[in-house]
Amino acid sequence: MRFRLKAFGLHLSASVTLLTLILGALYLGWYRWPGWYLTGVLHVVVILGVVDLALGPSLTLIVANPRKPRRALARDIGVIVIVQLAALVYGAATLWLGRPLYYLFSVDRLQIVQASDLEASEIALARQQNPALAPHWYSLPRWIWAPLPEDPDEAASIARSAVFGGRDVVQMPRYFRVWNDGLPKLRQQLARVDELKGLSKAERGAVRSRMSRLGLAPGERNALLMWGEVRRVLVIFDPGTLGIRAILKP
């Protein structure tokens, strides 16, 4: 039994170390709040944890029989490790492709833009026409403004495309501009918590209470919802400077 427990402990320690390094790097680089919440990646992390921290070491505990020939034992553990690494690579690739690249204000809303939202052709155009704000593999999340182009025909074409499920300006980084340029437009969209249509009555009450506890004014026009795939958060701005005061779950 001691042999089995030693093999289990070594496998578990290696799994914990590798998973911590990968998830830690992704979290510190791209998935800090509110990125992990808006992208809904918690289920991927849970699956990785189950496979790499529970299933893999547990199988090693089962197959690690000291009376088994060393070649057979090495083969069995090797198969377990290969399957475990395949699951880890798949999960890490999923997190990498879904990493947040922009927290974006466009027209009347805030939303998150993930790496998977951008096509290679649009990225190439952005690197030619707007290199300062174009995404690269090493790009960390940035707060930016995505206005429609000034050309009315081009703006109308993008608006029609978005209505019918095509590409929107939020998927065209060649049009992105620095965050501060959009603050006057953003100020016009700020609302009181009670005016936000994306919150239920119960959520408004909960948000008002939390804002009061944090010393924020729920009666001021200082709030705007930020949308992810299926989730949203409430971003509270300073009405004077438009600096971000808090980002709250409804």
| Biggest sheet overview | 7 strands, mixed
Sequence of strands across the biggest β-sheet: 4-3-1-2-5-6-7
Domain count, please report it.
3
How much of the sequence lies in strands comes to 5-15%
Number of strands: 7
Radius of gyration: 24 Å
Termini separation comes to: 50 Å
Helix amount, in percent? 40-55%
Tell me, rounded to a whole number, the average pLDDT.
Answer: 90
Task: Identify the overall geometry.
Answer: elongated
User: Structural class given helices, strands, pairing?
Assistant: alpha/beta
Spell out the helices and strands N to C.
HHHHEEHEHEHHEEE
The parts where pLDDT drops under 50 for at least 5 residues are none
Number of helices: 8
